[in-house]
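> Could you send the Neurotransmitter-gated ion-channel ligand-binding domain-containing protein prediction when you get a chance?

Sure thing. Input:
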Amino acid sequence: MMVPICFALATTLTVLMTSNRGLHAQMITDAERLFSNLMLDYNKMFRPVLNQSKPVVVYTGLELISIQDFNEVAEKISFTGIFSFAWYDERLFWDPKDYGGIESLNIDVNMIWTPQLMLANSVKKIDRISQDWHTVSVTDLGLCFYIIGNVFTTSCTVDVTFYPWDKQTCRFEFMPANFYDSSKINLFPYEGDAWTDYPENGA
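Output:
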């Protein structure tokens, strides 16, 4: 049984940008040819490891942008957050020299394997957090970056024993939506502080 991962850590992903210095112009025909070759015989139903007996390692992060609402009576919290995911797809790699120096490519999320996660303690409909219109940034080394931003509403057990000086801890529990266990996919949090960019509430 897959244990839900509870986010308390985060990082900021630096997306690798392609540089044109020292390379000839990157033509749309190069990108089209690269995309066609990458998608040739690609099947997103299979996890992106050549050895299917090994798990996919996915690094995850959460950046809390703002708290939209905190309802102590209903014991729920709504927040704006940005989730970051990174993993290697062993089928998506190429030599930039063969494609006009292209070092990264954006691919629609519904065309390649991605970690489909759901918010396990959502107070609304439990559904995957990804959307078909999202894109994944893929580098020539097969490193995939996927960033999801949204407003999420979760349950949060409230303890008002020491009100009005009480402190509350809310857990955001995410887990694979496709019944993968730890032998198929491993989720690891980035190192960092999820609350760094959130202004302290002095109220």
